[in-house]
Amino acid sequence: MPFVGAGISQPSGYPLWTPFLKKLVQHTDITIEELEARLIAGEYEEAAQELAEKLGPAFAERIEA
Prior knowledge:
mainly alpha
């Protein structure tokens, strides 16, 4: 069974996960350095969770948009 991973929707105009998270971090008190450290460590879910907690409903709204 093939695995369809991140990037499959990029040709449709959707952002990749990393740039999306980096854009959202600007609206929190999390520093870009803190976010990048998580991403380098492969902690994408943890980074997204932290952003979701900081942004509240705005996080889901950004994903939907």
